Amino acid sequence: DVEVPETFLKKRTQNEKAREERLAAVTAARKASKAKREVIFKRAESYVKEYLSKEKEEICLKRAARAAGDFYVPAQPKMYFPINEIAPKPRKIHQLLRLLQINNGVFVKVTKATRQMLRLVEPYITYGEPNLKSVHELIYKRGYGKINKQCIPLTNNSVIESTLAQYDILSVEDLVHEIYTAGPNFKQASNFLWPFKPLNPTGCWRMRKFMHYVLGGDFGD
């Protein structure tokens, strides 16, 4: 019989071991991916239930107020979406709000400090409380993530997970929920999102935008 060299046997054993390890790693990765998809799906379901419940509650409160002959006063907004309309003059505040270009928009958590900043730059911006549909469409249709100072499209959940997993934000729906509810990790979620560039209004901006929104102009809340 021809004796097989020991080095060949060792090499074959190593190759078999490496193959088994690769197969085990692939199997483990598939299991982890499946488990993660289940978590993301269950969260998305719970978010839909949460949004519907809130919407029904608002409707009930409005009806109850109307039946009692009262006015319904909605809760104070938790978050605004300001848009820069003209070149920044109060430059520092525009920088803090990340409104560096005309028609840029960002999500801002409503606090005493942000209210004061928005009041100071009211002549130069439009802002208001976005509804769930607006937040959803902005992030899904126009959302880009900031990764290593680069603007990356949100083509899949891994783009979000790679940066925000430490805040338990694993998917686009997690991101929408964190922004819409102004959650505890709102700052990290908002800073991850590249400033939005909504479409200009039909006919572009008017030459003068110095009348307040409530008076039919463009600036303010």
From TrEMBL:
<feature type="domain" description="Large ribosomal subunit protein uL30 N-terminal eukaryotes">
    <location>
        <begin position="4"/>
        <end position="75"/>
    </location>
</feature>
<dbReference type="Pfam" id="PF00327">
    <property type="entry name" value="Ribosomal_L30"/>
</dbReference>
<dbReference type="InterPro" id="IPR016082">
    <property type="entry name" value="Ribosomal_uL30_ferredoxin-like"/>
</dbReference>
<protein>
    <recommendedName>
        <fullName>Ribosomal protein L30 ferredoxin-like fold domain-containing protein</fullName>
    </recommendedName>
</protein>
<dbReference type="InterPro" id="IPR035808">
    <property type="entry name" value="Ribosomal_uL30_euk_arc"/>
</dbReference>
<dbReference type="GO" id="GO:0003735">
    <property type="term" value="F:structural constituent of ribosome"/>
</dbReference>
<comment type="similarity">
    <text>Belongs to the universal ribosomal protein uL30 family.</text>
</comment>
<keyword id="KW-0687">Ribonucleoprotein</keyword>
<dbReference type="GO" id="GO:0000463">
    <property type="term" value="P:maturation of LSU-rRNA from tricistronic rRNA transcript (SSU-rRNA, 5.8S rRNA, LSU-rRNA)"/>
</dbReference>
<dbReference type="GO" id="GO:0022625">
    <property type="term" value="C:cytosolic large ribosomal subunit"/>
</dbReference>
<dbReference type="InterPro" id="IPR039699">
    <property type="entry name" value="Ribosomal_uL30"/>
</dbReference>
<dbReference type="InterPro" id="IPR005998">
    <property type="entry name" value="Ribosomal_uL30_euk"/>
</dbReference>
<keyword id="KW-0689">Ribosomal protein</keyword>
<dbReference type="GO" id="GO:0003723">
    <property type="term" value="F:RNA binding"/>
</dbReference>
<dbReference type="InterPro" id="IPR012988">
    <property type="entry name" value="Ribosomal_uL30_N_euk"/>
</dbReference>
<dbReference type="InterPro" id="IPR036919">
    <property type="entry name" value="Ribo_uL30_ferredoxin-like_sf"/>
</dbReference>
<dbReference type="Pfam" id="PF08079">
    <property type="entry name" value="Ribosomal_L30_N"/>
</dbReference>
<feature type="domain" description="Large ribosomal subunit protein uL30-like ferredoxin-like fold">
    <location>
        <begin position="83"/>
        <end position="125"/>
    </location>
</feature>
